[in-house]
Amino acid sequence: MIGDRYIAALDQVLELVVLINDDMTRSLARDGLTVSRTHLLWELRRHGPMTQRDLAAALKVSARTVTGLVDGLETTGFVSRQPHPTDRRATLVTFTERGRQTVEAMERGQREFAHLLFAEMPAERFDCFTAGLGEILTRLRGIGLAQQLPGDDR
Amino acid sequence: MIGDRYIAALDQVLELVVLINDDMTRSLARDGLTVSRTHLLWELRRHGPMTQRDLAAALKVSARTVTGLVDGLETTGFVSRQPHPTDRRATLVTFTERGRQTVEAMERGQREFAHLLFAEMPAERFDCFTAGLGEILTRLRGIGLAQQLPGDDR
DNA sequence: GCAGAATAGTGAGCATGACTCACGGTGTGG
DNA sequence: CCACACCGTGAGTCATGCTCACTATTCTGC
Q1: Fewest beta carbons within 10 Å, which of A5, A153, B52, B90?
Q2: How many CA atoms are closer than 13 Å to the CA of B45, on its beta-carbon side?
Q3: Can you list the residues of chain A whose pLDDT is less than 50?
């Protein structure tokens, strides 16, 4: 049956999801980080200093959760809270030197990881793989939105 | 720079990981399940009734965690605890009727999902995609073990 | 210019899932 | 038959997530 090949392919995709997740979690733990806290650092890297409110929106998480994440990152010395220059209600979350260096090191690590995954792959297969991946992503983004609508909007 | 294409491909893979994770979490929540509890149900599906100790080993999780997962699944009526026929220390975790039906429904859902992802993809691209995916998985399995050794053995 | 609405952050309290440590009940090998 | 190993779980901890309530501030509309 042809559908079995699809099942097998989906199993492969799911295994990939698990392996990537585990690998990330493990390597982050070595830096004293968690996945959620790293997402926050990444967002900070992309946007520069941000208010916690903006972080909550960017991470699609409640404001309260951001308070907790920043608490943790502040305790472990990756970020610091600065007063907002014009809005005394808000705080600006900024990198410490250690935080900045850690994120830069992670970027280098990611580059190495990408190389390790793809560098030895024949160019033709790489192109075809990314094409297939892109097609799946497009499809997933579509149904992802479709499935969100009935249950919860947001 | 050629490495940028690898980075872009890795970004795609990471986006896939996130999308799949979110999709799974959402659809499981509709059934009153979580990812962890579903892993347990899956293991039960593959092996039949199991002791909690075996479940802990299969899920790569502490025995205490399994107690909590089974507690939850028992409360929501997916599994039940049965006395072990020969070892009075152990309990056998078995499906309830509802649990069995739910898992079977999930299997059908997975089949549909695989179809939805791949059925419209040209055969040639599908073959090439799965080939690339397989290559990456092989590589990841290798380094996954390699990376475990220095940090933690286990 | 000032009252009331909206916004920013956080305390309190809850659920889940992961861990360790300790402990009681049970099985088993010497 | 006794010491040791093993099964499950209570107790306590940590990290994420949530909501609700509250304070402090800012903005708006009259």
Answers
A1: A153
A2: 17
A3: 147-154
